[in-house]
Design brief:
Elements lengths: L1 E8 L2 E8 L28 H20 L7 E4 L9 E7 L2 E5 L6 E3 L8 H10 L9 E6 L4 E7 L6 H10 L7 E6 L2 E6 L11 H9 L4 E7 L7 H7 E8 L2 H13 L5 E4 L2 H7 L6 E4 L8 H10 L3 E6 L2 H11 L3 E9 L9 E8 L1
Parallel strand pairs: 3-16, 11-12, 11-14, 12-13, 14-15
Antiparallel strand pairs: 1-2, 4-5, 4-7, 5-6, 7-8, 9-10, 15-17, 16-17
Length: about 350
């Protein structure tokens, strides 16, 4: 491969490929005609088995380089269908066209197809496409494969109720603030402001991996969302405490608990603030923070409380490595599982199970 150097930053030279001299046997023809310009995918030119190997290698490399952690155990890999998996997509609208941002930038790239999106989302896009340029410049769609929820993210003028009503005539459910999502043996009410996992094929596997083999008196679920982990934990522990900063998600969590006939404590607070006030040591802490990771404050409170077991769910191996580097003074890594929630992209989800030394 021949490359062209594009920029130097902080001692690192960034280059872009200019010519493929001899294709790798692992190279395949991308399925999407927009691959290479659209910023959604980075790995469509690689066999899926190769993608999984690369991601496992990246995870180990990040642990070594960022966290000075020499993990010698096995990395279990859980994968599913490599296309049509996204149940939530965010779209840009510009000059009457629908698209995404460009690869490595913020310029608009119009698209006709998106192979990683759920067919239900693509069908909804085709139906409401004529309405969108008149009202919004950014929106997202979320589906349970029966209904589609519409969330307006940016508009240049107030969005009239008529717009949602018009969309609802074409796609059922788009005007509703909540969506009922079946997952992991439960039914979850998900508000349009709440987070939910995006891979429709692997939600059950992720939940099962997090709670597998866990039981005891008390479990704490940090960044709990609408309760994807809290509900199964409530069946395996005498008491479950869930902490979530989003008020809409907390309301959904309480509703989901009640409908399932389960009980627990739900706190609408930042996880680090709740940890700062905690005095009792739980048997298990589950934490699914955003890409920024747990952070130093939360980690220090976990080291103070010293729960026997911690399970971290991370979509960013570099911040995971940073958090594990802080926790390794008291914890050993009991297991690492790579769950490929984002095929065709460089993103990867990791479940790290820690045990108190």
């Amino acid at each position: 491969m021949r490359v062209e150097s594009s920029k130097d930053r902080k001692g690192v030279r960034w280059s872009t490929p200019s010519e493929i001299v001899e294709p790798s046997p692992d190279r395949v023809t991308p399925l999407c005609p927009h691959f290479g310009t659209c910023g959604g995918c980075q790995y469509q030119h690689a066999r899926y088995e190769t993608q999984l190997d690369l991601k496992a290698g990246i995870l180990i490399e990040q642990l070594q380089r960022m966290g000075k952690i020499d993990y010698t155990g096995e990395v279990e890999v859980i994968s599913g269908p490599e296309y049509g998996y996204r149940n939530r997509c965010q779209f840009q609208v510009e000059n009457g066209k629908l698209g995404y941002f460009e690869q490595g930038g913020i310029d608009f790239v119009p698209i006709d197809v998106c192979p990683i999106a759920s067919p239900t989302i693509l069908s909804a896009v085709d139906k409401i496409r004529p309405l969108l340029p008149k009202f919004v410049s950014r929106f997202e769609l979320f589906t349970n494969e029966r209904e589609v929820q519409l969330n307006i993210l940016r508009t240049e003028r107030p969005v009239a109720r008529r717009f949602f009503e018009d969309c609802a005539k074409l796609v059922p459910g788009t005007d509703q603030p909540n969506l009922e999502y079946p997952a992991a043996g439960d039914l979850f009410r998900v508000n349009h402001k709440a987070f939910f996992q995006v891979n429709r094929f692997l939600v059950d596997e992720l939940s099962a991996e997090v709670v597998k083999g866990e039981q005891g008196d008390t479990a704490v679920d940090l960044y709990a969302g609408v309760g994807l982990f809290s509900l199964p934990l409530a069946r395996q522990f005498k008491s479950v405490i869930s902490v979530e900063t989003g008020a809409a998600a907390v309301a959904d969590l309480k509703f989901n608990w009640k409908r399932a006939g389960l009980e627990g404590q739900a706190h609408c607070a930042r996880s680090e603030d709740w940890l700062a006030k905690a005095t009792r040591t739980p048997d298990l802490v589950v934490a699914d923070p955003p890409r920024t990771g747990l952070g130093k404050v939360a980690v220090q409170h976990l080291l103070r409380l010293k729960p026997p077991r911690i399970t971290l769910i991370s979509c960013n191996p570099s911040t995971l490595a940073r958090d594990l580097a802080e926790l390794k003074s008291a914890y050993d890594i009991a297991g690492l599982t790579l769950i490929d929630l984002f095929p065709q992209t460089h993103h990867l989800e990791t479940v790290a199970k820690l045990s108190l030394r």
